[in-house]
Specification:
Blueprint: H1 7-32, H2 44-61, H3 68-77, H4 79-87
Length: 90
C-alpha cells in the first residue's frame, strides 16, 4: 500500500536519489567505464567495483583543481603523482 507523501518530502527523496546517481554511479561509468566491465566470475565483479570506488575516493581527495578523469589519467602517466595519491591516504 502506498500513502500520500507531501510534495516537499517527495522532492527531497528524489533529489537525494539523483545526488547519489550523479556523484557516484554516473562518475563510475563516465570516468571508469564501469558499465562495460566484463568481470563475471566469482568475486571479481565485487572486488573490481570496490577498487574502482577506492580509486575514485582517492582521486576526489586530492586537493588540486581538475577533473577526476584527469587525475586518474595523470596517475597512470606520472609515477610521482601516483605515489602522491597513494601516500596521501595515510
Amino acid at each position: 500500500m502506498s500513502r500520500p507523501v507531501a510534495a516537499k518530502a517527495a522532492l527531497a527523496a528524489v533529489r537525494d536519489h539523483w545526488a547519489i546517481e550523479n556523484k557516484l554511479h554516473w562518475v563510475l561509468d563516465a570516468v571508469l567505464d564501469e558499465d562495460r566491465a566484463r568481470a563475471r566470475a566469482d568475486n571479481a565483479p565485487f572486488n573490481l567495483a570496490l577498487l574502482r570506488r577506492i580509486a575514485l575516493n582517492i582521486a576526489r581527495s586530492e586537493p588540486s583543481n581538475g577533473s577526476i578523469r584527469g587525475k586518474i589519467k595523470r596517475a597512470a602517466w606520472d609515477d610521482a603523482f601516483l605515489a602522491k595519491l597513494i601516500l596521501q591516504m595515510r
